[in-house]
Amino acid sequence: GAVVSQHPSWVICKSGTSVKIECRSLDFQATTMFWYRQFPKQSLMLMATSNEGSKATYEQGVEKDKFLINHASLTLSTLTVTSAHPEDSSFYICSARIQGGYGYTFGSGTRLTVV
Amino acid sequence: EDQVTQSPEALRLQEGESSSLNCSYTVSGLRGLFWYRQDPGKGPEFLFTLYSAGEEKEKERLKATLTKKESFLHITAPKPEDSATYLCAVSLNTGNQFYFGTGTSLTVIP
Predict the structure, then answer these.
(1) pLDDT tens figures, A72-112
(2) 3-state secondary structure of A31
(3) How does pLDDT run across B6-46, given as a tens digit for each residue?
(4) A107/B46 CB distance under 8 A
(5) Cβ within 8 Å, pair B49-A102
(6) Is the separation of the CB atoms in B97 and B83 below 8 Å?
(7) How many CB atoms lie within 10 A of CB B21?
(8) How many whole angstroms separate alpha carbon B62 and alpha carbon A7?
(9) Which of B25, B62, B63, B92 gets the highest tally of CB atoms within 10 A of its CB?
């Protein structure tokens, strides 16, 4: 149980285009989801906290207008990288808190390459 | 300032050579400490949760322990398939956030 499905697993896009990444909780409802970014050989850095039905909370230094987060339902959160540039190339991972506990389950990640 | 530090950054072991990974934390109000395994190009995979000092959890060749300042992930007689990056993270009594350590990249040589 407590599976988070993330799609796509990898995407290549041209500079200036937008890319949407989806994160779904398959067998539980997630009122809160988290979006992380991970550079090669580095740890996960929290970008934003996504709250169902309300605005996301962004970490310091993360551009709200570039990384649009939508959490329209209890099972789906999306991250849209707008006007992507090569420096946005990274590994993006979502997670959700497991109901009834203090643990978190993670999606399989999305490798974004902007060319 | 809340901080989570892992050491060593990288570790190479011969198959069967036991060792330990360290996760030191300085946080106000620890709710739980978590260990994850991450394979290249994949999301973190949950291993253990520890909530209080003195607690221990075991799974196959892995054993996690917790004190008031640090956690150890002991790996006994590792196999090549144990090669991965091991991440620790802490959650606090306030809020929903997770703070990750920088990870230890483990390589087990046959």
Answers:
(1) 888 999 999 999 999 999 999 999 987 665 578 899 999 99
(2) coil
(3) 999 999 999 999 999 999 999 888 889 999 999 998 999 98
(4) no
(5) yes
(6) no
(7) 22
(8) 31
(9) B25
Q: Does A57 contact B at CB distance below 8 Å? A: no
CB atoms within 10 A of CB B110: 7
Query: Which pLDDT tens digit goes with each residue over B52-70?
Result: 999 999 999 999 999 999 9
Residues on chain A touching B91 (C-beta within 8 angstroms): 102, 104
pLDDT in tens, A14-36: 999 999 999 999 988 888 899 99
Distance CA A93, CA A35 (A): 6
β-strand pairing of B10-14 with B104-109: parallel
Q: Is the CB of B7 inside 8 Å of chain A's CB atoms?
A: no
**Which tokens is B89 given?**
């993270």
Q: How far is B96 from chain A (nearest CA, A)?
A: 8
Rounded-to-integer distance, Cα B81 and Cα A33, Å:
30
Dihedral sign for Cα atoms in the order B65, B77, B36, B25: positive
- Using CA atoms, how far apart are residues A91 and A74, in angstroms rounded to an integer? 24
**What are the two backbone dihedrals, phi and then psi, of residue B80, each rounded to the nearest 5 degrees?**
-55, -35
Residue whose C-alpha is closest to residue A93's, from A59, A43, A41: A43
